[in-house]
Amino acid sequence: MERIFNKLNCTDDDKITLAEYQLEGNAKNWWRASKDAVFPEGTAKTWDGFVKAFNGKYNSDCARDRKMTEFMQLNQNNLSVDQYEAKFSELSRFAPRLVENKEDKAKRFLNGLRTDIRRQLVPLNLKDYSEIYEQAQLIEHELMKDGSGTMARSQY
């Protein structure tokens, strides 16, 4: 949303209005109940104030720590390679220091793959995340074709 706001040269009021419009479910209910406390009558509504309140509710240190732990413990288990990669990408933003080095990111991804896939990748000594992901997809496809992938998955 920030990129859109910058492109459109939105005012703080515009930003808050557009953000309110995007809120759904619990977030929408939270904002309805909280906006008067965040911006008491007579107080200027600022985008920074909205962001600070929103992050305090939905991006607390505790929540970020939980996501980082989830990333550190992430393994493919019964997920497909594509599902594992999507979860890996989603959670990696909570642990940027663990994936800022390309080789560390590739190793972390490799180490989380199921054993039957990882065993075939290790001898290739790949260091590139994209290559590991692509090869893992190919290996998974072959395992599923010959039926050994089904058995390996049932172990998890």
Q: If you compute it from the alpha carbons, what radius of gyration comes out, rounded to the nearest whole angstrom?
A: 22 Å
| Count of separate structural domains | 2
The number of helical elements comes to 11
Mean pLDDT: 91
Low-confidence stretches: 150-156
* Major sheet size, sense and barrel closure: none
- Shape descriptor reads elongated
What percent strand? Answer: under 5%
Overall strand count: 0
Descriptive key words:
156 residues; mainly alpha; 2 domains; 74% helix; elongated; disordered C terminus
Q: How are the secondary structure elements laid out?
A:
Layout: H1 2-8, H2 12-22, H3 25-38, H4 47-58, H5 61-72, H6 81-92, H7 96-99, H8 102-112, H9 115-121, H10 129-146, H11 148-154
Helix pairs in contact: 5-6, 8-10, 9-10
Characterize the structure shown.
With 156 residues, this protein is an all-alpha fold. The chain has 2 domains: 2-59, no CATH class; 63-154, no CATH class. 74% of the residues lie in helices and 0% in strands. It contains 11 helices and no strands. It has helices at 2-8, 12-22, 25-38, 47-58, 61-72, 81-92, 96-99, 102-112, 115-121, 129-146, 148-154. Helix 8 (102-112) packs parallel to helix 10 (129-146) and helix 9 (115-121) crosses helix 10. The model is unreliable at 150-156 (pLDDT under 50).
